[in-house]
Amino acid sequence: MHTWQRTELNNVTSVKFIPDADKKAELAHKIATMSERHAQELALAQIEVLKEDAKGNWFQSSWRPLIGWISGLSLGINYMVSPICAGFGITIPQADMSVMMPLMFGMLGIGGMRSYDKMKKTDTKK
User: Fold this and answer.
1) Between the CA of residue 47 and those of 33, 43, 60, 61, 126, what are the distances in Å?
2) Which residues contact 103 (CB under 8 A, 6 or more apart)?
3) Smaller CB count within 10 Å for the chain: N or C?
4) Cβ(98)–Cβ(108) under 8 Å?
């Protein structure tokens, strides 16, 4: 029980203008349980929000792997497929890697930090 609750409880129980002892006890009980009920309602509402977040959706769980596959394919085309095809006289236009590399390195860095967090047991998804 918080100090302000105790103060309010003491105020209600010491009030002299509520002559009925049962009514005074009922009011004291209501004040004492008010914050617990409110905290429980907040916790239940938070649980509902977390349930919805846990479901997720396809886009939310798939956009990072999609960007990773696009970056990997671009690297493969630029540095493997295009040079091999050029040897056979087939010209394949190359993607601008000055755009792809920062994106890929950023994703690798985030993925690396996530792995480091898991290794050090500072995983936030416990």
Assistant:
1) 21, 6, 20, 21, 15
2) 67, 71
3) C
4) no
List pLDDT tens digits, range 65-116.
787 788 888 888 888 999 899 999 998 888 777 877 787 777 777 767 767 7
Structure tokens at 55: 């479901």
Nearest C-alpha neighbor of 104 from the set 62, 63, 70? 70
Tell the residue number behind the tokens 């920062």, with chain if given. Answer: 102
pTM given for the model:
0.40
The rounded distance, in Å, linking the Cα atoms of 78 and 5 is: 69
The whole-angstrom separation of Cα 20 and Cα 110 is: 66
110 neighbors 104 (Cβ within 8 angstroms): no
